[in-house]
Write a structure and sequence with these properties.
This protein has 525 residues and is α/β, with parallel strands linked by helices. Helix content is 46%, strand content 14%.
Length: 525
């Protein structure tokens, strides 16, 4: 499913009007009618009993609101309109639809200034539910003045809000709040989800998201082709490598994992087991020789390969040649979980990044070794997948974690361009950025995943899928979706917090089986 920026949506609308001759007024009518239908499905009973009000601004979002009010009136809902603008400033389709309200004798309250807003405060309390049609996707500055006051008053009423296209005050591209924002219970958006619906805090302010078809021709969509997608179950099922009935472990992928240091052997164990749970046939963990007895106790199915140490528990240049030999005949290399930050380990990691002939998944300390100098990635010819959390991404970009969180999609894209690698920026939501600028957003997962070991499990899943033959792009898509969906199931069965990374890993085979065996709608999230 495509996800669009504000400018991409504007381009789709413009092309539909100019190239296919569909009038803007017809698109607005269709959008308003569909939004009214969804409103009635969610709030029809409440609105008929207690009345509804539509808060309109002076732009096209307000025009949609006028159409919605008209259709609600025709459906028997007692509805009133509050115009938070000077009606003399209305233009185009919005003005035409405003004029139609007078013919229906719908109550319209004009609120051109703060004084009038104060005067109407008691009237604002009457409706049982509100429709937010104040500001749409074109918001480009902080909300101030009358609209800021109106949004704050509406939020204070405690009434459910149905947002049209986007909760007013939300940035359509980043999910940031521009000064203030209405909190919606349901949002009906037109054409495609906007990035701001899926990125926090916008995702929380959007409430339940309903995506409405307003008649944009498929030919227009395919020609303009938005650069973001939301990962679907159908896309994940297509991404999973097929397994022939005569498969054996030598044909289902062999992962080499370089991981673990004193106190962090659990990270190596989780990543290794997750690769097997994702379907890899074989996993070999390369670890410091003194840690090998610990790993032998922690895991049974993965193999281990004790490597020469610089000192007990610390890998460095001495392990370079043995690792190169270990990679022969293998399918994927994963480096980093719990590996440590010793300068000698950093030197080893940088050599592996530059020299490994295998597809490489780089996580945790594997990423930290590149902070300040991304040169080894430029020297590499094999596919590379980076899996940073915001702090690690910030170190690679030379910025702060707060700046990364402020624009998650943009930050992931910058890192993908700088490294010419696939970037899996972990978080809510996880963002996959491609070197060419495309981005994918993962809809699965929950806040219970904020616990130790989750990233190690994701590294293992990714490496396991690549080893089985999935392209790195397909593996990223499938890994993040399966990781999050397994966590969603853990939250349902064990509770929303306190479940462990290992329990998510244990749920993977069942999750994969249900995905492969059950029917999956083409656009199922």
């Amino acid at each position: 499913m495509y996800v669009v920026t504000a400018s991409e949506m504007q381009a789709l609308d413009r092309a539909t009007i100019e190239e296919f001759g569909l009038p803007g007024r017809l698109l607005m009518e269709h959008a308003g009618r569909e939004a009214a239908r969804v409103f009635l499905a969610h709030f029809g009973e409440l609105a008929r009993r207690g009345g509804a009000a539509v808060a309109c601004g002076r732009g096209n979002n307000g025009g949609d609101g006028f159409v919605i009010a008209r259709w609600l009136h025709q459906a028997g809902v007692p509805v009133s309109v509050f115009l938070f603008a000077d009606p003399g400033r209305l233009a185009g389709e919005a003005f035409e639809n405003f004029r139609l309200l007078a013919k229906l004798a719908l109550p319209v309250h004009e609120v051109p200034d703060a004084g009038r807003l104060e005067f109407l405060k008691e009237e604002l309390r009457r409706p049982a539910v509100w429709v937010d049609a104040l500001l749409g996707t074109g918001l480009s500055a902080e909300v101030g003045g009358l609209l800021r006051e109106a949004i704050d008053v509406l939020n204070s009423l405690g009434r459910p809000v149905f947002a049209v296209d986007l909760p007013s005050g939300l940035d359509a591209d980043t999910g940031r709040v521009r000064g203030t924002c209405l909190r919606a219970e349901v949002t009906a958006t037109f054409g495609f989800p906007k990035l701001g619906h899926l990125l926090y805090p916008g995702a929380a302010l959007t409430g339940r998201l309903e995506v409405l078809d307003i008649g944009i021709p498929p030919a227009v969509v395919e020609r303009l082709r938005p650069r973001q997608r939301r990962i679907t179950a159908a896309a994940v099922r297509a991404a999973l490598p097929p397994r022939p009935p005569d498969a054996h472990k030598g044909r289902t992928g062999h992962v080499v994992l370089i991981a673990g240091s004193p106190g962090k052997t659990g990270a190596a164990a989780l990543a290794a087991l997750a690769a097997l749970r994702a379907g890899a046939g074989l996993v070999t963990v390369g670890c410091a020789a003194s840690l090998n007895p610990v790993l032998e106790v922690l895991v049974r199915e993965p193999m281990t390969s004790p490597l020469p140490e610089e000192e007990p528990g610390v890998l460095g240049p001495a392990a370079r040649a043995p690792i190169a030999a270990l990679l022969a005949g293998k399918d994927c290399l994963a480096v980093g979980p719990g590996l440590g930050v010793d300068p000698r380990t950093r030197e080893l990691i940088r050599a592996l990044v530059a020299e490994s002939p295998l597809p490489l998944v780089l996580d945790a300390d594997g990423l930290n070794a590149l902070a300040g100098d991304l040169g080894p990635l430029a020297a590499s010819a094999a596919p590379r997948v980076l899996t940073p959390h915001p702090g690690e991404a910030a170190r690679l970009l030379g910025t702060t974690a707060a700046a990364v969180q402020e624009d998650r999609v943009g930050s992931a894209r910058r890192l993908a361009r700088a490294t010419r690698a696939l970037v899996v920026l972990k978080g809510a939501p996880t963002v996959i950025a491609h070197p060419g600028g495309e981005a994918e957003l993962n809809p699965t997962g929950n806040a219970g995943m904020a616990t130790a070991g989750m990233g190690d499990v994701l590294t293992g899943i990714l490496a396991g899928l690549i080893a089985q033959g999935a392209s790195p792009e397909a593996a990223c898509r499938a890994a993040v979706w399966l990781h999050g969906r397994a966590a969603d199931e853990a939250a349902r069965t064990l509770g929303p917090r306190g479940y462990l990374a290992g329990e998510v890993m244990e749920a993977l085979p069942g999750r994969i089986a249900r995905l492969l065996e059950g029917p999956v709608p083409a656009e199922a999230p």
